[in-house]
Design brief:
- The protein is mainly alpha-helical.
- It has a single domain, classed as Orthogonal Bundle (P1 Nuclease).
- The radius of gyration is 21 Å and the shape is globular.
- The N and C termini lie far apart (81 Å).
- The chain binds 2-acetamido-2-deoxy-beta-D-glucopyranose (6 copies) and zinc ion.
- The site of one 2-acetamido-2-deoxy-beta-D-glucopyranose has 6 residues, from helix 10 and helix 13.
- InterPro entries: PLipase_C/P1_nuclease_dom_sf (IPR008947), S1/P1nuclease (IPR003154).
- Monomer.
- One of its GO terms (molecular function) is RNA endonuclease activity.
- Its EC number is 3.1.30.1.
- It catalyses: Endonucleolytic cleavage to 5'-phosphomononucleotide and 5'-phosphooligonucleotide end-products.
């Protein structure tokens, strides 16, 4: 094999591993949302959640909050894929349940907001009539609901139909050479050792959806949190008791005393998608510090809101208090 050919193979190998490595961060956002939620659970919620969690969770909801992403590619779970997002008409920057909540075959309610209503209803029916036979797998219902409340807070999960929520927009995510060793965090997790050559700038193509699912969080961990997710979660929790404390009751509340209210969350997300995700990110753009630094506060706030609202929803579901105290 000629040396240039060998070099080419080496490049392809490193790039492939790099991209796979980058994507292994998908769990971090969901873990964060669920971890924040746990600290806002009422006593009854703690007990109910503990009872429903699978053994593999070891008592920690956050550890199974990515489960719906892990299974969605298996054929028997393929029907769940449309439940992770909702597409809205291009450039309208708004969301309407009846218009938008369907899958590509126009089956109504098959989208992330419909799924949140669905799994809330399943958990409610069991919580209200504990003596009737339950036809649903409530362990799955809890894991789906916890995951989808996270998903709906990621702006591009309520993106445009035309680009599949940023999935078909390819951008370049820039990584300075000096940051290279940080990339290996993910590989250590995979127990892989990768040697990084210095002849390449680590800017590579990826769908914009992945920038918002993974890369902004990953870069934040490297830049501000010493690669430690617990440190980032701590920072968000500190903000919740300081800067954001006045907003928390508003984030928790549901109109008309509903148990779950995903529709306003979806409207917020498409708004943020238009204002921040799509802006200055046309296909082929290299997204660097400008983009990262201005979008990170949005991502952090959405993770915190997702956590607060997941806790509020589960507290309403599992609370034994009368649902309409006023009546
Ligand atoms: C509701 O949940 C059930 C059980 O997982 C599932 O079969 C059904 O497709 C779900 N529907 C929606 C709209 O999420
Ligand atoms: C409920 O779902 C979980 C996760 O899919 C599964 O492990 C468990 O066996 C199911 N329980 C029942 C009673 O089917
Ligand atoms: C890497 O980036 C630097 C500065 O952005 C540039 O000067 C250099 O030519 C790039 N190297 C390669 C191999 O693209
Ligand atoms: C960053 O994390 C490493 C362990 O991963 C630790 O040894 C180091 O002290 C930490 N640095 C700071 C500033 O906390
Ligand atoms: C919502 O609940 C509160 C008390 O929990 C009650 O005072 C109020 O009237 C209710 N609002 C609606 C629209 O049901
Ligand atoms: C905390 O809140 C302030 C004010 O909203 C914001 O600027 C900052 O980015 C937040 N920090 C974190 C870690 O979210
Ligand atoms: Zn998802």
């Amino acid at each position: 094999m000629s040396s240039s050919l060998r070099q080419w193979f080496a490049r392809v190998l490193v790039l492939t591993q790099l991209i796979n490595g980058a994507l292994c961060w998908g769990k971090e956002g969901h873990y964060t949302v669920c971890k924040i939620a746990e600290s806002y659970f009422e006593e009854e919620t703690v007990a109910a959640v503990k009872k429903l969690l699978p053994k593999s969770a070891d008592g920690d909801l956050a550890s199974v909050c990515s489960w719906p992403d892990e299974i969605k590619h298996h054929w028997q779970w393929r029907w769940t894929s449309p439940l992770h997002y909702v597409d809205t008409p291009d450039y309208r920057c708004n969301y309407e349940y009846c218009r938008d909540c369907h899958d590509t075959h126009k089956n109504q309610d098959r989208c992330v907001t419909g799924a949140i209503f669905n799994y809330t209803m399943q958990l409610m029916s069991a919580s209200e009539n504990s003596d009737t036979i339950v036809h649903y797998n409530l362990t799955e219902a809890l894991m789906f609901l916890s995951h989808f409340i996270g998903d709906i807070h990621q702006p591009l999960h309520v993106g445009f139909l035309g680009d599949e929520g940023g999935n078909t927009i390819t951008v370049r995510w820039y990584r300075r050479k000096t940051n290279l060793h940080h990339v290996s965090v993910c590989y250590r997790m995979l127990k892989e050792k990768v040697i990084f050559p210095d002849w390449i700038n680590y800017s590579y193509d990826l769908p914009m959806m992945k920038v918002w699912d993974n890369m902004i969080i990953e870069s934040a961990l490297k830049t501000y949190y010493n690669k430690s997710l617990p440190l980032m979660i701590e920072a968000l929790q500190a903000n919740l008791t300081n800067d954001w404390s006045n907003d928390v009751p508003l984030w928790e509340s549901c109109q008309l005393n509903q148990t779950a209210c995903p529709n306003p969350y979806a409207s917020e997300s498409i708004n943020l998608a238009c204002k921040y995700a799509y802006r200055n990110a046309t296909p082929g753009t290299t997204l660097g510090d400008d983009y990262f630094l201005s979008r990170l506060p949005i991502v952090e706030k959405r993770l915190a809101q997702g956590g607060i609202r997941l806790a509020a929803t589960l507290n309403r579901i599992f609370s034994s208090k009368p649902k309409h105290a006023g009546s």
